[in-house]
Design the sequence.
């Protein structure tokens, strides 16, 4: 059994509210969980202290038992100073995909052909 520290969604439509829970990785997102260790309210302002709440003692205990946090929860733990989230670098993130690059190349060829002067007829 692998244990995860993850978010379970609650709240109403277009008004999300998440519980930070300890759950078996095979259980459904909003389904059975072992223990609730915090909450996250994305509707609050980013600088609000009530945006996310964690019971750090419980989190540390579960981490010691081998629980793995998801990426979003790891961001919260990093912000709380419990764990450090490794910096990621994705230099290709801003690049267009292969299809977009092909379309750009085709458009450049068409524009170059249209801009080239037509051969003069004698």
Sequence:
């Amino acid at each position: 059994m692998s244990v995860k520290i993850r978010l379970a969604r609650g709240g109403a439509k277009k008004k999300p509210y998440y519980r930070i829970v300890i759950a078996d990785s095979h259980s459904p997102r909003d389904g059975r969980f072992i223990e609730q260790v915090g909450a996250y309210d994305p509707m609050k302002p980013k600088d609000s202290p009530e945006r996310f709440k964690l019971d750090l003692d419980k989190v540390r205990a579960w981490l010691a038992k081998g629980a793995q946090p998801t990426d979003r929860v790891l961001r919260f733990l990093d912000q709380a100073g419990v764990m450090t989230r490794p910096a990621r670098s994705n230099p290709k993130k801003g690049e267009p995909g292969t299809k977009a690059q092909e379309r750009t190349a085709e458009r450049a060829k068409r524009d170059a052909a249209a801009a080239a002067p037509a051969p003069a007829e004698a």
